[in-house]
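Aim 2, interim progress. The first record below pairs a target sequence with its C-alpha cells.
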Amino acid sequence: MEYSHSDTDLIKQPIGYWSWAAYNAVVTRIRASLAGIGTTQPQWWVLAQVARADTVKTRDEVSRLLRNYLDTGPETMESEIDSIIAHGWITEDAEGRLGITAEGRAFYDKAAALQNELWAERHAGISDDEYLTTLKVLQRFIHNTGGRAWHH
C-alpha cells in the first residue's frame, strides 16, 4: 500500500483528520452495503442485539444500549426499532420484550454474512496485533482529551 506521506511526515499528521477520514470511509461503506440489502446500520444493531441475546431483551434495554452509537439518539433508535417490527423481523410483547421472527432470523443471517465480508475487507493486510494497537491508541486519544467512549 502507498501511504499519503513519509513516516517522518505522517508523525506530524493530525489524528482528528485521520480518525475522521477512517470513520467516514468505514461507516459509509457499511451503510451503503446494508442499504443494498434493505436495512440501515441502526436496524442491524437492533437485529443483532435481539438475535444474539442469551436472554430476552426489552425495547428499553436495546434502545439504551444503542442510542449513543455514532450519536444516533433515542428518537432515532425508537424509530428504527419500530421499523424492524414493521418489517416483521422482530416482535414486541406487551412488556416490551423483543423477539426475533423466522423472517428476522433469515434476514439476520444474510446481514451477518455481509458484515463478516465487510470485516474481512476492512482487516485485509492488518494483523490482530496491529488492530489491537490501533484500538488502544485510539482509546488513549479519547482518554487524553477527556472524552468518553464505550462499546458493548
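The second target in this work package is listed in the same format:
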Amino acid sequence: MNQYETVIVLTPLLSEEVAKEALAKFSKIITDSGAEIVQEDNWGLRKLAYPIEKKASGFFHLTEYKSSGELISKLELELKRDERVLRFLTIRLDRHAVAYNDKKRSGAFNKKPKQEVAG
C-alpha cells in the first residue's frame, strides 16, 4: 500500500455545509475502496495565487491516506465530474515525505528549544 495526499480546492460560492458535504463525499469514496485515511486537514477559505474560473479564492482541504493505486483513478474521475471542485492534486508520498508528515503531526517542529539560564 502506498501513501497519498490529495489537495482539493472547492469553489468559494459554496456555503460551509455544502462544502463539508462535498468533502464527505470524497472521503466516503476513499474509505469505501478499502483505504485508510491517515489525516484530514481543512485549511478553509484561502486566496488563490491566480484566478481560476474568475474566482480569486477557494476552500482548501488536504486528505492523507493509505491506498492501492486503483483508487486514485476512481477518485480523480469523481473529482473531475464534480462542478464544485476548482482544482485538485494527488501525489504519492515517498518514505521521506511520510516521515516528515509523521513528525509534523506529532508536533516535533513546534517545540521551542530550551534556553539555558546563565548564572
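The first strand starts at residue 2 and ends at 10. This observation will shape the mutagenesis plan for the next reporting period.
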